[in-house]
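name: query_chain
kind: protein
chains: 1
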Amino acid sequence: MFGFWKTWKALEARGIMGINRRNADYVLKYNKRSLYPIVDDKIITKERAMAAGIHVPEMYGVISTEKEIDKLDDIIGGRSDFVIKPAQGAGGDGILVVADRFEGRYRTVSGKIISHEEIEHQISSILTGLYSLGGHRDRALIEYRVVPDQIFKSISYEGVPDIRIIVLMGYPVMAMLRLPTRQSGGKANLHQGAIGVGVDLATGLTLRGTWLNNIITKHPDTTNAVDGVQLPNWDGFMKLAAGCYELCGLGYIGVDMVLDQEKGPLILELNARPGLNIQIANDCGLTLRTHAVEARLEELKAAGVTETPEERVRFVQEMFGHIPAVEG
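structure:
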């Protein structure tokens, strides 16, 4: 027992945030319950983002009832690729990614051939709440299929890599690239076996990786190095993340984004209870950074000043960046 206490005190000294501290000091303190539906429902998030001019994957349509499943053909139209997902799903469950059509059927991103009836059955399962938070009835969202930027080809297995940035009161405090693996079934979900890679806030350069709670330097499927990769348009990602505070009003969130081959950075979804594995990938505790942001907020409050998203990004890049940001 003493050994555990000693270890925990050492972690606390490094600023490692545990789940109890996250919940009490950040989720409960900064996130009003009344605002949760904005981030817990992907359709509401998407509609809010589009109204604010924030880039998201295009929404083709929504199916809310069994009867509306008949609209599927009209929603898909002549498109050969699209994504179907539960509006209130979590952890990537229930998502169907169609990459192409084949002989009157559909080919998923993993290569499986499925029928139109199987797609309808998947939508029906979504509507019953099979994948939703709390098992409540849900809606099915049909949207644009993101095509990952070519930079990820050598360090990702199938699926779509995404970027998670934790944001406190509009200030990005830590970032991670999540890379699908064969074990994760092509999903960027750490609990299912995806890789988490730390990202330098100042430059967008990838740091080390964590896979199944082990530190790694190479992707297990491609064997290519996951560290030292320069993510394109990094300032664009940072500004998108910072602007999500104004979008949803929640003070402590995880912003999940993707880099599309043609459309650039896109917001995928927001999370009011972001996980803590990001600390392992960055070899750094969240608490040291959140305390620095809270001190900054007190300082600005005393001066009667608020900062723009651009100013907030500049502050965190100077404060937390491993490498000085390059000007110009």
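note: Residues 78 and 101 are 10 Å apart (CA to CA).
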